[in-house]
Amino acid sequence: DSLLQEIVTMSDLPDGWEERTSRSTGQLYYLNKYTKQSQWDKPTSPAASQVRASHLLVKHKDSRRPSSWREENITRSKDEALDILQGYISKINSKESTFEELASQFSDCSSAKKGGDLGMFGPGQMQKPFEDAAFGLQVGQMSGPVITDSGVHIILRTK
């Protein structure tokens, strides 16, 4: 009976997913064939080979380019940038502001002009921590703080 259940489980995976067994725990996990991202929860929709996301970037003095359209010379620390980002997350979660409003006003990325929209992108087009976070989100879901060489981000997956 469990063998039959396993066969059914394997065949009803959405497109682009593979079922794998963890070498360390022996538990089943699921691998996105396109992005090579894995997850424990059984996927309910086809694996995305591209996503669309918006982001809000807060740069700091150790960012790879510590300047932006908002500020010529960014001097804040990484911790200060994270504190600012947490404030934005709180405003979004409390519905005081929308993601797009805050990204338009405060993002240190030129995508601010488009409410933070980065358009469609696939694996290998963004810095790895950003890519991992964006592909790991469900459509409509917002990330917590994501740290890259560019600064600290919150990401909203839109497609």
Q: What oligomeric state best describes the polypeptide chains here?
A: single chain
Q: What is the helix/strand order?
A: HEEEEHHEHEE
Radius of gyration: 18 Å
Fraction of helical residues: 25-40%
Structural class: alpha+beta
Mean pLDDT: 90
Span between N and C termini?
A: 38 Å
Identify low-pLDDT runs.
Answer: none
Give the tally of β-strands. 7
Globular, elongated, flat, extended or rod-shaped: what is the shape? elongated
Strand content: 15-25%
Strand order of the largest sheet: 5-4-7-6
Biggest β-sheet description = 4 strands, antiparallel
Could you give a short description of this structure?
The mean pLDDT is 90.
Name a few traits of the molecule.
7 strands, single chain, 159 residues, 27% helix, 4-stranded antiparallel sheet, 4 helices, alpha+beta
Describe the structure.
By secondary structure, the protein is of the alpha+beta class. Helix content is 27%, strand content 22%. The chain has helices at residues 2-11, 78-93, 99-106, 128-136; strands at residues 17-21, 28-32, 38-39, 51-58, 117-121, 146-148, 151-157. Strand 1 and strand 2 (28-32) form a beta hairpin.
Write the layout of secondary structure elements.
Blueprint: H1 2-11, E1 17-21, E2 28-32, E3 38-39, E4 51-58, H2 78-93, H3 99-106, E5 117-121, H4 128-136, E6 146-148, E7 151-157
Antiparallel strand pairs: 1-2, 2-3, 4-5, 4-7, 6-7
